[in-house]
Specification:
Elements: E1 2-11, E2 14-24, E3 29-33, H1 40-47, E4 55-60, E5 63-64, H2 70-76, E6 77-80, H3 92-97, H4 109-122, H5 138-152, E7 156-160, H6 168-185, E8 188-192, H7 196-202, E9 205-210, E10 213-218, H8 220-223, H9 226-233, E11 235-242, E12 245-253
Parallel strand pairs: 3-8, 3-9, 6-7, 7-8
Antiparallel strand pairs: 1-2, 1-4, 4-5, 9-10, 11-12
Helix pairs in contact: 4-5
Length: 255
Amino acid sequence: MLEIAGLQYGYHGTPVLKGIDLNVAAGEVVSIVGPNGAGKSTLLKCVNRILRPTAGTVSLEGRAASAYARRELARTISYVPQQTGPTPLLSVIDMVGLGRAPHRGQAPAAHDRAIVMDAIEAVGLVPLAFRLFAELSGGERQRVLIARALAQEGRLMLLDEPTNALDLRHQLDAMILVRRIVRERGTSALIAIHDLGLASRFSDRLVLLSAGRVYADGEWTSVLSPAHLEGVYGVTAEVGTANGLPYVIPKRQTP
């Protein structure tokens, strides 16, 4: 689905991504983890052509992402950004409806409305459907953005901190939903996330970034080793499973 080779990017002459190689297969959930400033969000923005890489290539389904027209790219990639920028004066249903913009003209309006309402129901926002987006809490807004991405129906979902501002129940709901959508639709998901426990539980693979490079890539048990966590995060940590669920507990900083 996605192939990234030698990807580089920098801000104002400062390198952020320093040669990223990464593949995501169809039907796979891959989470990008790493400390602040490692390049997780920048990587997603380069895949989605919000940022233009300074070197390297991004391919979608065997075709260069740069060859996609913007509308075609928006039908291929669904994107959940971190909450930044001004708050639109739109209702929840209209915000989620923006996800159908790349598809308009290809299907009847009734079909689009059905998809929008299904997405709103999937994230538990039916009671808020006609509330203004600006009136919602941070967690509720995040769920709206996830619903908008579902309505967009991209074959690749890019999610930048999708559990940000969500309470424990809705963090779990969001990750279960992404996992289910990928399984049922045969799509793929690339997630930038800080929560190592959630990432480990719901991802097929983890990619650990450090200072703009891939430090480790594989199953969580190998990527989140105590040695890797100390090398990247500068902490000693206890890593294990309890009742079959993975956990990572930081214990102390290392010199």
